[in-house]
Amino acid sequence: MFSTKKSWDKILQIYKNEIRRQISKTTSVTNSDAMAPRLDQSANKSPQNDEIGLPKKLLKLQKYHRFLSTLTPQQMPLAARGLAVSKDQSREFMACFPDIVRDLTKTGKHIDVPEASKWLAKLLQYNVPNGKKNRGLATVLAYKMLEKPDNLTPENIHLANIMGWCTEMFHTHQLLLNDIMEGSEMRRGAPCWHRRPDVGLSGINDAVFVQSAMYSTLKRHFSAKSYYKNVLEMFNEMLLKCSIGHHLEKQLTKTDKPDLSLFTMEKYEAITKYKTAYYTFQMPVGLALLMTGIDDPETHRQAKTILLEMGEFFQIQDDFLDCFGDPAVIGKDGCDIQDGKCTWLAVVALQRATLEQRQIMENHYGSAKPEDVARIKDLYEELQLPHTYSVYEEATYDLLRTQIQQVTRGLPHDLFFKILDNIFRRSV
């Protein structure tokens, strides 16, 4: 009997390793039962699909064994749209933001430099509230599901919304720096902040400005709370982890061409965990736990284990959408290939590639030329990566459901199922 926590962890790790092993298998045997039809092979067209007006790209990818939920326009995943919360919750969350900006800019502080306060207001309004707000809304959702009903007072819910906006300011701080480091042009359908004529490299200082505003907001509203110290420690820890993630990623692209020999699954998972998973998934739930008075290390460890797994899939999903998603739906033009990023698609392609196919990666990956980008996408399809992703999505969903069901320590399973549902866009 496998009744102990260690036994279950071992079983789940074996299952996860088997998924990885299957993903890395070569696709050279074209008649294998495990292989989906090649995209360039004939397939029966479905008149019904044409009638409902599905995008050509989706129809093309439907030649695989099942409908890719990631590309379904009616049910785009969390990486492509916001967290599914009620309109009332969304309005409640948005209603807090003007007050936060007002507190930071019109409370009598720094009255001798009014231009600085005016700039901060402009900086916050341009960058913070216009995204999907996944992290902020997840913080509020987690608090409401974790807190005792008697403690869900208007004041405490307001504080949870403020905490949510602090996670959004943390996210904005990361985006501002990331856009500068990567030379990005557009963000959320508008020019990146540092691309504005009145900003430029001073955007680095503006990123610090946003971070300082976040800490000021935390002090104003939470300094008298018993969990304040732990909250500060969590934000500082997340800042360190994100910095490590950026460092690991930049080590792969020190020159104009990425060093593909460093593109391993282990390296990819480390980058994903430190750059994205910790602060996107663990932090919102971790902060909610602290706000409800739960600071037991084992409870936080159990939550972190599942949330980091979700964070890894979230990034893999984002990588897939960057290459195969519709820019009109996901809100951005994919540029991972052009930037030479260490993505899940690139790593799996290198695992499966023949010597000739690897040379194609060496010759074309990391180039901004449209013909080079197209050649890499063609190679991904030749290697049947959309099918591999589809299988991975299915297996990961089942694995995460199993892990959630093993959670103890009084953590509500519904919270994790809710987050899982938002990633995979399924009814759970």
From TrEMBL:
Keywords: Isoprene biosynthesis, Magnesium, Metal-binding, Transferase. One of its GO terms (molecular function) is (2E,6E)-farnesyl diphosphate synthase activity. Pfam families: polyprenyl_synt. GO terms for cellular component: cytoplasm. Its cofactor is Mg(2+). GO terms for biological process: farnesyl diphosphate biosynthetic process; pheromone biosynthetic process. It comes from the Eukaryota. Residues 26-52 are annotated as: Disordered. InterPro entries: FPS1-like, Isoprenoid_synthase_dom_sf, Polyprenyl_synt, Polyprenyl_synt_CS. Pathway: Pheromone biosynthesis. Belongs to the FPP/GGPP synthase family. This is Farnesyl pyrophosphate synthase. It comes from Papilio xuthus.
